[in-house]
Amino acid sequence: MTSHIIEERPGLPELILEHAGARVRISLQGAQITEYVVEDTNLLWVSETARFAEGVAIRGGIPLCWPWFGASLDDPKWPQHGFARKSQFQLVSQEHGPEFTSAVLQLVGTPTVPEWEAAAQLEFEVRLSDRLWMEMRTTNCSNRDLLVGCALHSYFQVSDCGAVSIPALTGLDYFDKTEDFARKTQASALKVKGEVDRVFMEPPSCVELIDPGSERTLSIESWGNTDLVVWNPGPEVAASMIDFDNAGFRQMICIEPALALDNRKRLAPGESICVGQTLRCDL
């Protein structure tokens, strides 16, 4: 049960949490988890061409999309997925014990959007035990109402995206971003065939990602979210992204608890919300 900070890349310190043979690596830029290692297997996917540099979002792991998801509905010129994933966080507390190792990080970087300067506080807690628990907590620190969206933009490593399935999504309605947000119903267990970008409404609190190629099942339990986003760019979109290795789409799928689209939460001054998830894998 340990934790320590390393700086293998200049200007990009990372926090390492270890517990009972499992390990988590968190970049203090963005409070972004880039590794969740269980039995020497990283359950998260990171692009081979991901850019690790100050002020640049890391492609993969679990970026924190905040204080909005996707393009801003207030101003399309504002940064995609908000500014938290490119901002600095500081470690504000740690806890070690026989049951878990944990850390709390808090956003301290200056937002690139003046309208959000000092308007809200974002805190991110991570607990590592026989599973990985995490929670984003937002508090409105301003004297006005704030509309807050967010997502735990989780990239999971899979053996073959075309072979995995998510049975719990069967029967759910979703908005299909690839077809101008057309509303549809998931008729059967979701499988990836080409580009997938779907916002599922009113998802169950727990879904399973079944990966027969690696003979493992990942359980994802979430709370505080109204939506569950599933994304895989497919070959054409992946090839158009400089930080997404062209064949990498085959080994990943994103499953993201979110407050997306029109489901942003209106926070009164002093009000707080939280969105979180627990990951548990049967290897």
Describe the structure.
Strands 6, 12, 13, 14, 15, 16, 19 and 20 form an eight-stranded antiparallel sheet that branches. The chain has one helix at residues 234-239, and strands at residues 2-9, 12-19, 22-27, 32-38, 41-42, 64-65, 89-96, 101-107, 120-128, 132-140, 146-148, 150-152, 154-157, 173-176, 182-185, 196-201, 206-211, 216-223, 227-232, 252-259, 265-267, 272-282. The longest helix has 6 residues, at 234-239. It is globular, with a radius of gyration of 18 Å. With 283 residues, the protein is mainly beta. Strand 1 (2-9) and strand 2 (12-19) form a beta hairpin.
Average residue pLDDT: 94
Instruction: Give the overall form.
Output: globular
Q: Work out the strand percent.
A: over 45%
Q: Regarding quaternary structure, how should these chains be classified?
A: single chain
Number of strands: 22
Elements, N to C (H/E) = EEEEEEEEEEEEEEEEEEEHEEE
Instruction: Please estimate the helix content.
Output: under 10%
Q: Largest sheet, described in full?
A: 8 strands, antiparallel
Radius of gyration: 18 Å
Number of helical runs? Answer: 1
Termini distance?
A: 21 Å
Low confidence ranges: none
What structural class do the secondary elements suggest?
mainly beta
